[in-house]
Amino acid sequence: MQPDNLINSLGRDLKQRFGHKVHKLTIDADFTCPNRDGSLGLGGCTFCNNASFSSKTNTQLSIRDQLETSKPGMRAKKYLAYFQAYTNTYAEVAVLKQMYEEALEVTDIVGLCVGTRPDCVPDSALQLLAEYQQQGAEVWLELGLQSAFDSTLERINRGHGFAAYQDAVRRAHQYGLKVCTHLIIGLPGELPEQSLITLERVLEEGCEGLKLHPLHIVRGSQMARQWKQGEIQALEMDDYIRTAGEMIRRTPWEVVLHRVTATARRPTLLAPDWCDNRWPSYMGIQDYLQQHGGQASALGRPSLIQTA
Ligand code: SF4
Description:
Keywords: 4Fe-4S, Iron, Iron-sulfur, Metal-binding, S-adenosyl-L-methionine. By secondary structure, the chain is an alpha/beta fold.
């Protein structure tokens, strides 16, 4: 099977619908997060150091300038503005409106991807996003869930449980919005079986997109200390490939995979070593799917994963 037919990727999905390449351009709009500013907590999620995934640390640049300076070399005709860093619905709706519209007004921007927490999506923000969608913009609400297990969410100090995710998805769907759910593989205390159960619960709730991510241990996070003290271990690449591969095989074809692996930049990344390069794990997943079947091929079949 051709690699393009193994996964219903976001690139593939957008190309089919728009007729040409559409790329995401990342924005850091200088938001904060209720799990960091004291509203919910101060320490944040134990894995979190936004500097590891935010490609734009210069938030002195306007949203427009961040988008314009990211375009060259992208080889796409159209773009989605991806509000990535921190919690991008965490402001008064008037402020959100100003930021989102600054992005939408940039030439060749055809939509928004808005990353946020499930407990931070008031109806006013959903309604605003739904209005852009009704006007023809491509809109994705990206919800960080990471795990469907409340025990794990508590352990990593998320500050919300699975019920908050269920509520956010239900309301987003009432507004007709597409939801992309972010999941982390390799969280402390979780075996591959838990990742499969998380996937099952997420699919039961219904979502239009998924983003899979290996656990990164990054400088400045609480997990960095736990890892240095030997309290948690870094994920092996082979384990990630098998788990992500099985999750993809259990994902219905119509669910769009926004990402199946992720990198972090050194020196922020401490472990695992293989996470500083996207390609080995990406190619490993492609090989796994070639051997065992692509997206949706294992629906209704027993797990290939051996759990300890
Ligand atoms: S991962 Fe997201 S929700 Fe958690 S502390 Fe970091 S910005 Fe906040």
